[in-house]
Amino acid sequence: MRSRLVLVAGAARIASMTRGFYTGRLSYWSLVLPILVLIVMFFYIPVALAFFWSFFLERPFGGGSEFVGFQNYGRVLSDPEFWNAMWRTLIFMVVAPGLAIGLSLILALAADRSIRISQAARNIIIWPKAVAGASIGVVFVFIFNPFLGIFAPLNEISPGIWNPRIDGADAFITVVIAQIWNGIPFNFIILLSGLQAIPDMLAKAAAMDGSGPWRRIVDLQLPLLTPQLFLTFVLEFVGTVVEAFGLIDTMTEGGPGGATNLLIYKIYVDGFKAYDLSGAATQTALLMMFVIVMVILQFRLERFVKYER
Amino acid sequence: MVEDTRGIDRTALVILIVGIAFILAPIVIAFLTATLSYEEFVSAGGIGLNVGSSFLDNMRRIFVETQLPGQLWNSFVISILVAGIKCTFAFTATFALVFYDCRWSRIIFALTIATVMLPLELVVITTYQVVANVAMPLNWLIRITGLAWLSERIFGTMPDFNLSLLDTYIGVALPIATSSTSVFIYRQFFLSLPKDLPRAAAMDGASPCRFMVDVLLPLSWTPLVATFMFWFIGGWTQYLWPLVAAATPDAQPAVVGLAKLANAEPDDIPDVPLLMAGALFVSFIPVVLIGVMQRQIVRGLNLSEK
């Protein structure tokens, strides 16, 4: 679920809690306890356990655990496969969100114009949000099938020009396209509602001063849209790290030759197929730290974002 | 506005047509292919614009040959649970955080918001461990407090509780429901209400609980409905967690069932028409939901302002 949006504004607003009205201790705690138990049980304990296992080695056949210090980290960090998966994750994190946000921006700017088709576009472009990544994968793997899909005619002209089953780059491209298809709706909604929140008055004033609609996009709409653009980048960066799983599992299974083996998929295979709990937990811990660092970096960037209107 | 906008409007028109085509293309291809029989599909040599007449037959095969109908029901129950738990827990907690005076509120708010930073997919390995035995923290507690030692002295055995929620609806739903975005959305909404609302209710003799149910709940209908729909769709489209938490086909949601079906097909010429019919079958409910409820969802989530 792409819901990191909360974090962006959330942390900044913790400081400004207002004083409440009621004071009952018992009713207060009975109201907050359900969510506290839920998140401690199924969020904080699993996160803590991942760090725990990254320092322990699980003995086979349920023989307990053994403290090994940083050995697990040493093993993971010296594994070239880990770095390959990390590198692919990084590339994927830059390419897919970049394209998804860029295309969403163009679509949102177009849909913001009051022409007849924009109402239909606003409704239809949001549909992929309701389609699971794995379902998209099942459809796209057929569309890009080298012998049955849309590029099959190309292969008849010159065999082997397109084959995501053998060519790693082709496979990576198919996953990126599927991710873009899946990623457009949410970015589109955020950017479009940002555009629509820009007061009409500003556009009118700018028009009065002689700036045409094209000029207004560059000098008025885009600068005022930076908060929403920032938000979409935060959401997409963290989102793509995990969302690619459904696509990879149904489209390429990490192949060919590991070309689409992103870290999230590698962790799954190591943990649930190879039963390497400590290795998977260590990579989980590293990926979590990576995500947290990314989010903090984005907060730093936020200072350059214009919020006042 | 009186100005010449024909140039830009024409460009916008072209862009939107291309965008709609890109979004609709996979859906149309899936639909067209789902109308073909396997023989028609093979003889056509793959993707094409032919319309067959086997759509109903493919749908019938989904009911007869696959487990997708039962799994659709699983998806439905799991999504309702996810959305229901998220909305009710977040609603009561946010009510307490905003309308009660308590110094713990800040910490609790920070704790709930932090869950948003790390998606469930990142920590599936250890979440699986916890759900495989939800009594694990209880065992730790017994050991830490020395109760285990005591019972070993008296009864000669260490108590070791074991309760697995794997393969159950609730076990699949609970970890998905931890991401507490709703707390933030409801908090924003509550803070936008008049400050004297609880005071006025108290003057009329309403208890906090009464205020929450009779005043706050009806007022919050828009964000509640929007978040419920949004999390319902979010629960429906989950893949990695249900994949590991529900090992038996009887407990798996439809998306997992579809992926298993696709992976079980042979690689050379799989039964694509059946798979495409399956993909439509699995995605039908949430897509209709988002198509119909789009306006309410966008308005209720309040995305236009940060």
Entry keywords:
heterodimer; A: 309 residues; mainly alpha; two-stranded antiparallel ribbon; 2 strands; 71% helix; 2% strand; globular; disordered N terminus; B: 306 residues; MetI-like fold; 16 helices
Quickly describe the structure:
Chain A has 309 residues and is mostly helical. In chain A, 71% of the residues lie in helices and 2% in strands.
CATH architecture of the largest domain in chain B: Orthogonal Bundle
What is the CATH class of the largest domain in chain B?
Answer: Mainly Alpha
**Helicity level of chain A, as a percent range?**
over 70%
Secondary structure tally, helices of chain B: 16
Task: Say how many strands of chain A there are.
Answer: 2
Q: What multimeric state do the chains show?
A: heterodimer
Measure the end-to-end span of chain A: 30 Å
Describe the protein's architecture and organization:
The complex is a heterodimer of chains A (309) and B (306). With 309 residues, chain A is mainly alpha-helical. Chain A has 13 helices and 2 strands. Chain A has helices spanning 5-14, 25-54, 71-77, 80-111, 117-124, 133-143, 152-157, 168-197, 200-208, 213-224, 226-251, 263-273, 277-302, and strands at 56-58, 65-67. A two-stranded antiparallel ribbon of chain A has the order 1-2. The longest helix of chain A is centred in the N-terminal third of the chain and has 32 residues, at 80-111. Chain B has 2 domains: 1-65 and 262-292, no CATH class; 70-251, MetI-like (MetI-like fold, Orthogonal Bundle), CATH 1.10.3720.10. Helix content of chain B is 71%, strand content 0%. Chain B is flat. Chains A and B meet through helix 1, helix 2, helix 4, helix 5 and helix 6 of A and helix 1, helix 4, helix 5, helix 6 and helix 9 of B.
Helices and strands in order:
The complex is a heterodimer of chains A (309) and B (306).
Chain A: H1 5-14, H2 25-54, E1 56-58, E2 65-67, H3 71-77, H4 80-111, H5 117-124, H6 133-143, H7 152-157, H8 168-197, H9 200-208, H10 213-224, H11 226-251, H12 263-273, H13 277-302
Antiparallel strand pairs in A: 1-2
Helix pairs in contact in A: 2-13, 3-13, 4-8, 4-11, 6-8, 6-11, 8-11, 11-13, 12-13
Chain B: H1 6-34, H2 38-44, H3 55-65, H4 68-99, H5 105-114, H6 124-132, H7 136-144, H8 147-155, H9 169-176, H10 181-191, H11 197-203, H12 208-219, H13 221-236, H14 240-245, H15 254-264, H16 272-301
Helix pairs in contact in B: 1-16, 3-16, 4-5, 4-9, 4-10, 4-13, 4-15, 13-16, 15-16
